[in-house]
Amino acid sequence: MGRIHSFGCHFPLRLTTAGKHNEPADAGNVGGRIGAGAGSSSAVGCQSASALETFPVFVAGVLLVHALGRESGLSEWGASLYFSVRLVYLPPYAAGVPLFRSLVWNVALIGIVLLLPASLWPEL
Questions:
Q1: Least buried of 1, 25, 77, 110, by fewest C-beta within 10 Å?
Q2: Is the dihedral of CA 29, 31, 35, 38 positive or negative?
Q3: Do residues 111 and 78 touch, judged by C-beta distance below 8 A?
């Protein structure tokens, strides 16, 4: 696996994308990773917990933009990016694809971050 070099430190790439379900997926046990759903320690249960951690911030950002009357192309991009990427997030999570899953999660975070400048500068 790759390494990240930062400030003279060497971190295995798997540590920078660490999570509860980053172990390699058993090709015959995808159903086992999905498990019982929310409230369990299964992949979907943890994915639901991950969504519940970011969703309130997303809703607050959307409500802020709307309450200030500053809907713009940037706020539309941010909201659309977050929502669509969260839909894409579940299959890689259930399949146990940690690097791709981390990339998808970070793209969703960018969607949330786009809402802040949209609420401050409506001309963007």
A1: 1
A2: positive
A3: yes
The whole-angstrom separation of Cα 96 and Cα 43 is: 8
Tokens encoding 65: 């933009």
Classify residue 89 as left (phi > 0), alpha (psi -120 to 50) or beta. alpha
Q: Round to whole Å and give the CA distance between 124 and 121.
A: 6
Q: Do 45 and 36 form a contact (C-beta atoms < 8 A)?
A: yes
pTM over 0.70: no
pLDDT tens digits along 58-100: 999 999 999 999 999 999 999 999 999 988 888 887 888 888 8
51 bridge partner residues: none
Strand, coil or helix: 5:
strand
Who's near 10: CB < 8 A, 6+ residues apart? Answer: 3, 4
d(CA 86, CA 52): 11
